[in-house]
């Protein structure tokens, strides 16, 4: 229940390619229990496992792992076959090179490349030829390759920068969940930069762990946020461990051995605040329980620290555009 929820934007964006291919996805949304009204609400959010199911089902229905955004379909199973081709490589560099070579065998596949810049490595995507109005495929490819590489070596690859060849989109605030690093928009190319030391690391995965990995990937890679090492991410983990008591800012600052003023300043530099982080966590916990029948609305309100259910109703509608009752009725 501590997993971050997914903005409805990403579900809407994923469906654009299906619509382009002429696929009627209304039955799929009904099957998954996702109401069109929920997707139409700009502030609404969905549980990560539901987003994973949506992506997996779209891949199967379209037989296209590019979800209708590429110049040609990438047949279902391509990603799995690429993973089998790289799993026995001796280093991350060899694995990435072989993986990119695999996709280069398909003339219409999106082009990615690896280049060295002193001690840094840049993974670049040529998105100039993609039909990708909401940048869904571009974001997905960068996220998948970053998280695949991290999984292969058994540790998160720290990103130094994520650049995008387009201006900051309306959903740009969500990019912190995707990349957790400094961002640059309207750049010459879309790319990720990380230290070259990761390339020399051995792969810690094998055929056995790959089988489990492929049961939910790469959809699961898209629905899992990149928490990284930011103060915001550390605070979220801290608050989620003690969500029953909801410690205040002073208590959290003392736990981190810094002053409240310093804590506020660091969060401000990351573009957030303590109250905003707490509200986001409350929102995500509420959405977790509203998608199940384990707690009543009053019990959810109490668990989130609201003295009155009416206060919870007002807060939830402010967060998502829907009342808790309306949200529960639509999932």
UniProtKB/TrEMBL annotation:
Occurrences of domain HTH araC/xylS-type (ranges): 233-330
Recorded superkingdom: Bacteria
Annotated protein name in UniProt: AraC family transcriptional regulator
GO molecular function: DNA-binding transcription factor activity; transcription cis-regulatory region binding
Any one of the GO CC terms: cytosol
Keywords: DNA-binding, Transcription, Transcription regulation
InterPro entries membership: AraC-type_N, Homeodomain-like_sf, HTH_AraC, Tscrpt_reg_AraC-type_HTH
